[in-house]
Amino acid sequence: MSHIVVIGAGQAGASLVAKLRNEGFEGEITLLGAEASPPYQRPALSKAYLLGEMERERLFLRPREWYENNNINLRTGTPAVSVDAASQTVTLEGDEVLSYDHLAFTTGSHPRTLPAVIGGELDGVFSVRDLADADALKPEFTGGRRLLVIGGGYIGLEAAAVAAKMGLHVILVEMADRILQRVAAPETSDFFRNLHSGHNVDIREGIGLERLVGEDHVTGAVLSDGSEIEVDFAIVGVGIYPATVLAENAGVACDNGIITDAFGRTSDPNIWAAGDCATLDWHGAQIRLESVGNAIDQAEVVAQNMLGAEKSYAPKPWFWSDQYDTKLQIAGLNLGYTDVVTRETGDARSHWYYRDDTLIAVDAMNDPRNYMIGKRLIEAGKSPAPSVIADPETDMKALLRS
């Protein structure tokens, strides 16, 4: 009876082992996680969990008993140290060795941190990537304190929103010309800049961090424009990078992620990868999709292919972000867009991305109806004329039938 080892007990790892059992696999399954907790949802860490609106137990994707009942050997607090692809073994911390017939990397990603030379190792400087980060941050969120957020991506903006709602004084600095520059059009950046400004968040764009100051604990910051500010703590949200060290050391091909083919297989025929750590083919280019939806969908296809399905993975990208009372929902990928069309209906707003005449993505703010319509149009390969989308009289649902 074969043994499948999955390294990485996050959303992708949990989805993969569940799918293996659902597909009828009766062999041995071991799921290895470096953290002490069973697999949990991460998006809530920077939102509901920090706000105190979600209990710790509700974060868990499944209770620990579920893994026992499904004969899945969940080993938390058990980091893998190395993988030997030739002997098909995994060495764990403590020198225990596991043999595998097939192995999957679902190791996720790590937050980028600040170098020590500019104060990145001072106490009071946090990332928001795992449960331990969120637990360490919670006591810091006390009304009246001063928070510096470094980075104007979704993680930084979500943390700023939580802090502002809890009565903290928030300054957010973004080195690029505008917040969300890497992932969204200027129209979406403008929307969220206005949203945060309306909640008294001081957003400073085109301004970087020169250094954090303090002896042991951060007490202030010097910004690239020469200004100095006092802070009680800081959150760093300057992106993530894929966790590929184990794969690289095992000789698996990597390039900004673990390279996979259409089936999720790596350069080693007995090793697979899924989730944030893995690249995938997107219209002829290898990209990574950093989202819950991709982690689940890609992992489930990999599980089927481990069992011989030979099923190609065709991603259907979607993302979301919650800030204050605004829910942003994104369908598609806006890579290479040439035009953006805005549609407004009451308090709802959506931005539609076109590459020439082709609809490729939608950002919808408090507009779930048009988000779903946009998602279905993109997946069906339909591209209504931009003028039709912009017209408030257009029957959007009718576009799905045309």
From TrEMBL:
One of its GO terms (molecular function) is oxidoreductase activity, acting on NAD(P)H. It comes from the Bacteria. Its cofactor is FAD. GO terms for cellular component: cytoplasm. It holds the Pfam family Pyr_redox_2. InterPro entries: FAD-oxidoreductase/Apoptosis, FAD/NAD-bd_sf, FAD/NAD-binding_dom, FAD/NAD-linked_Rdtase_dimer_sf, Reductase_C. Its EC number is 1.18.1.-. Residues 3-299 form the FAD/NAD(P)-binding domain. Keywords: FAD, Flavoprotein, Oxidoreductase. SUPFAM superfamilies: FAD/NAD(P)-binding domain, FAD/NAD-linked reductases, dimerisation (C-terminal) domain. PANTHER family: APOPTOSIS-INDUCING FACTOR 1 (PTHR43557), RIESKE DOMAIN-CONTAINING PROTEIN-RELATED (PTHR43557:SF2). This is Rhodocoxin reductase.
